[in-house]
Write a structure and sequence with these properties.
The complex is a heterodimer of chains A (183) and B (218).
Chain A: E1 2-7, H1 15-30, E2 34-39, H2 53-56, H3 68-77, E3 80-86, H4 94-101, E4 107-112, E5 119-122, E6 129-135, H5 142-158, E7 163-168, H6 173-182
Parallel strand pairs in A: 1-2, 1-3, 3-6, 6-7
Antiparallel strand pairs in A: 4-5
Helix pairs in contact in A: 1-6
Chain B: E1 2-7, H1 16-28, E2 35-40, H2 44-53, E3 59-65, H3 73-84, E4 93-99, H4 109-121, E5 126-132, H5 143-163, H6 168-175, H7 182-203
Parallel strand pairs in B: 1-2, 1-3, 3-4, 4-5
Helix pairs in contact in B: 1-5
Chain lengths: 183, 218
């Protein structure tokens, strides 16, 4: 299995989350899995401008000159994507969300309603599975965790894949690795 | 009432979110003492003004398009900045506007739940979340086709401007159906493909490349 860890920690002053992800990468590697980590805060990823250029002008390629190509290649290389960030205001970080917005070139503009609900067709034959990893805030409650899971489940559905896990850093990296690899 | 209207669409002043916000504000302005300022947070200068004004308004309307099933990254990062600012004891009432391209209301349910929780987390009253699907292309439709939806936004703006509240039943009616019949969805698929996507692709001389997969493994 090849895993892509998308590190959406926007606060380098808090080393706990980065250290947890490094430990997770080591556990996965030791189990024989391929691991690629993208530290999103170090990448040049501009906001999606909603121009639809990636659908209607240069199909599959974002019009913005940034590192979206590296992100898309890494996404398509992986079997499972770990959407990882501390919770900020009760949801994944804005940095991680900005990166998720930049994934829409993997979709076609055309709408597929065969499931009884609209979503876009995939541009590629491959759809990696998604997992979410979060670090609680001091005031996180179960409702925040449920909302986070619900939103990313919707995103997975509309990316023609599934959310296989939504996990907290309160469990060990070995448990997270097991959940991701066995899903 | 002093209302700060924030357009969270990355498309800025020409966006569909701004179009709907402007209708809401027309209704809001019916009450004589009301004042509103609109800012586009995609513009850096407006974003700075929005950060400065957020906590000092009587009410804040934050609108955005649904991006990958939630708020655009732009909006989330803005909110994270807002939360770091000193908060006065008297906090603004929050109103949210979420519009989506897909027609079904079901797409905006999770983010609406988040926004209500967010307001509580910020210590603000949430007056309601205006949700509406099927908005992509609304500005290119003839006025008679969009009269009903524009009127609903205006009426909601008028109610909010007069009472500081929004009626739950009116919000449910605005959101529309959770799901549509298979026949209606097939029509949406066909119509959007023929009348919008393919036309635009051909106009951009990109139709032959529409299925390209530039990052596929070779």
């Amino acid at each position: 299995m090849n895993a892509l860890l998308m590190n959406g920690n926007s606060n380098p002053a808090d080393p706990r989350f980065d250290a947890y992800l490094q430990s997770l990468a080591q556990v996965l590697t030791a189990q024989g899995h391929g691991v690629n980590t993208l530290e999103l805060r170090s990448m040049d990823l501009r906001q999606c401008s909603g121009c639809f250029g990636c659908w209607l002008k240069t199909p599959g390629v974002c019009a913005t000159q940034d590192q979206h190509g590296q992100l898309l290649r890494a996404y398509l290389d992986a079997d499972v994507i770990v959407l990882a960030s501390p919770l900020v205001l009760g949801f994944s970080s804005g940095l991680l969300k900005r990166a998720a917005d930049k994934l829409i070139p993997i979709l076609l503009p055309y709408i597929d309603a065969s499931s009884g609900e609209c979503r876009h067709f995939l541009r590629y034959s491959k759809a990696p599975r998604l997992a979410v990893l979060y670090q609680d805030e001091p005031d996180t409650v179960d409702e925040d965790r449920a909302i986070t899971r619900e939103i990313w489940s919707r995103m997975a559905r509309n990316a023609n894949t599934s959310l296989v896990a939504c996990l907290s850093t309160t469990i060990t990296t070995t448990e997270v690795a097991h959940a991701i690899a066995c899903a | 009432m002093r209302l700060l209207a924030l357009n969270g669409s990355p498309r800025g002043p020409k966006s569909n979110t701004r179009f709907l916000t402007d209708e809401f504000l027309r209704g809001f302005a019916v009450t004589p003492a009301n004042q509103a300022e609109t800012l586009d947070i995609a513009r850096p200068s407006d974003r700075e003004k929005a950060l400065a004004a957020f906590w000092h308004s009587d009410a804040v309307l934050l609108g955005f398009p649904l991006y990958t099933d939630a708020m655009p990254g732009l909006v989330k990062e803005f909110l994270e900045q807002v939360a770091t600012l000193p908060r006065p004891d008297r906090r603004p009432t929050l109103v949210f506007l979420v519009q989506s391209g897909f027609p079904e209301a079901t797409h905006t349910v999770p983010v609406a739940r988040y926004l209500e929780r967010l307001a509580s987390r910020l210590g603000c009253v949430c007056a309601g979340v205006l949700r509406r699907g099927g908005i992509e292309g609304i500005q290119s439709q003839p006025a008679w086709m969009t009269r009903g939806i524009r009127e609903r936004f205006r009426q909601l703006g008028e109610t909010f401007g007069r009472t500081g509240r929004l009626d739950e039943q009116a919000l449910r009616q605005l959101a529309g159906r959770e799901r549509y019949s298979r026949f209606a969805l097939r029509l949406v698929c066909w119509w959007s493909r023929v009348m919008y996507w393919d036309r635009e692709l051909k106009a951009n001389h990109a139709y032959d490349k529409r299925l390209d997969a530039p990052y596929a493994h070779t």
